[in-house]
Amino acid sequence: MTAAEEVAAELGSALRDFLGAYAHPVVPVEDGGHVWSRLSGELGLAGLLVPESRGGLGFGAAELVAVAAELGRAVVGGPFVPGAVAAATALSAVDTARSGELLEGIAAGSPLPTLVHVPFASGRRVAASTAADGALTLTGTVGPVLAVPPPCPMLVPVDVAGSPVLALVAPDAPGATLTALPSLDLSRPAWRAGFDETPATVLADGAAAAGAIRRAEIATCIALGAECVGVAGHALELTVDHARTRHQFGRPIGAFQALAHTLADLTVTVEVARSAAAYVTRCGGDERSAHTLAVKASEAAVTVTTEAIQLHGGIGFTWEYPAHVLLRRAHAAAVLAGTPDQHRRALFALVDER
Q: What's the CA gap between 302 and 308, in Å, rounded?
């Protein structure tokens, strides 16, 4: 185990202990905001990926995987992925005075910015135009996306004269809206961002903007993939515990061959997803390992949570039992950073480039 992996393991263990005070066995939706406030204020998770030079923790892929897995396991809501991961990664890749100010604000506890972007989208959904004086205005809608609840600064990828641009929209900019959408995941709503001749400033353009957006996509992919690993592992734990304690015909239901074989298959599925997460850590969070994690973890989370409800029997279908909460997070996280098929195609493209 490398030094980074040891730090990540300790961070994950500490986070699990911290969340244990709220997760019974998952964090209630109504407590999500309070829990995130404590995670951000007391543990500094908002600045997890912010460079130390900007006042953040300066962690990398190993720690991101460990933290996201625990947040997924407890089904914590809040703006971790769109703000502390996507926006912070994009800003860290842009070396400007304004991006530095925003990063320092994240580390200091200011409202998180959010990256308004749909991975694998074909073409920009927001049109940008420039006036004679060089002022930039945005028009259009994009969604559903994960976003920090308003008011918040928004980072919006657009094209200007055929060149990629990362634009910054102020929280109080006229014509800018963030509208909550119905979401399968009750703990973390999806949003639709709208712009109507909204003024914006250019944070980066050209290759710098394209690189920042791509890095943010990869980090988001890793975070949501790691969340799925945590969801799948927790669903399996709850199901195994149920199979051990629920008795039928005088013995635990887990002793029956049909259930035992299914649980064994699910265990293999979860371990494959955990191996993919370890692969991300060992590769430093590169693009290939991120896509691999997205495929294996999302499929594992959906499979395990679906089977968990079936194996719990009648209680698995009740609103009070958390099986449906894990299922909802699994399905939502599995598509918000791109579907498994999209990630497979991205992997094939990387292989073709070699």
A: 10
Q: What is the pLDDT of residue 121?
A: 63
> Are residues 58 and 7 in contact, defined by beta-carbon separation less than 8 angstroms?
no
Residues 6 or more apart whose Cβ sits within 8 Å of residue 37: none
Read off the pLDDT of residues 300-341 as tens digits, 9 standing for 90 and up.
Answer: 999 999 999 999 998 988 988 999 999 999 999 988 888 899
pLDDT digits (tens, 9 = 90+) for 129-151: 887 676 899 999 998 888 888 88
Residue 129 pairs in a beta bridge with 137
Architecture field, domain 3-108? Orthogonal Bundle (1.10)
Q: Which of 274, 172, 112, 117 is nearest to 104 (CA)?
A: 112
pLDDT confidence of residue 132: 64
The CA distance from 99 to 314, in Å, is 52
CATH 2.40.110.10, the chain: domain bounds: 114-211
Phi, psi dihedrals of residue 289, rounded to the nearest 5°: -65, -35
Give the β-pairing of 114-115 and 154-160: parallel
**Fold of domain 114-211:** Butyryl-CoA Dehydrogenase, subunit A; domain 2 (2.40.110)
**Rounded Cα–Cα distance for residues 147 and 169 (Å):** 14
Its sign, for the CA torsion 112, 97, 142, 345, is negative
**Nearest by Cα to 230 from 40, 42, 80:** 80
If we measure between CA atoms, which residue out of 194, 91, 99 comes closest to residue 139? 194
Instruction: Tell me the Ramachandran region of residue 59: left when phi exceeds 0, alpha when psi lies from -120 to 50, beta otherwise.
Output: beta
**Separation between Cα atoms, residue 347 and residue 290, nearest integer Å:** 10
Give the contacts of 103 (CB within 8 A, at least 6 positions apart).
50, 51, 54, 55, 56, 88, 91, 92
- What is the DSSP code string of 211-256? HHHHHHHHHHHHHHHHHHHHHHHHHHHHHHHHHHH-EETTEEGGGS
User: Which tokens go with 278?
Assistant: 């370890």
